[in-house]
Design goal:
By secondary structure, the protein is mostly helical. The protein is built from three helices and four strands, in the order ββββααα. A hairpin with a 4-residue loop joins strand 1 and strand 2. It starts with a strand and ends with a helix.
Length: 118
């Protein structure tokens, strides 16, 4: 069920359930993400906490909500742009003989075909 993984430093098999997941100390939610994303998320949250100079528990919870909402907005924007980039990668389907029109029509085609996923 899980992919087999080897710890390269000790050359031993590792339990794949131990990868890329941790329980968030403030919310108790289990977060599963790639290590690089986890570092970026942690840095993002620290910056939000620092910018609001949070003190008490309520302030920490509010700052965490703001950080999480910002993270989701940034992530959804990246996913949205990536989806349109996939459509732009195959420009041979549309021929208007004008690069900007071809790009606009390719984006419209992605929107029409992937609307339920966007």
């Amino acid at each position: 069920m899980f992919a087999e993984a080897i710890d390269l430093t000790t050359n031993t098999k590792r339990d794949p359930r131990a990868f890329n997941a941790y329980r968030h100390g403030l919310t108790g939610q289990v977060l599963i993400m790639m290590p690089a994303d986890e570092l970026a998320y942690t840095k993002h949250c620290q910056e939000v906490f620092a910018s609001f100079a949070v003190g008490g528990d309520i302030e920490k919870k509010l700052a965490q909500l703001i950080a999480d909402d910002q993270w989701r907005l940034f992530r959804s924007t990246a996913i949205d742009l990536s989806g349109f980039s996939i459509g732009m990668a195959d420009p041979d389907k549309i021929h208007a003989n004008h690069p900007e029109i071809d790009a606009a029509l390719a984006q419209a085609a992605v929107w029409a075909s992937e609307a339920k996923n966007l």
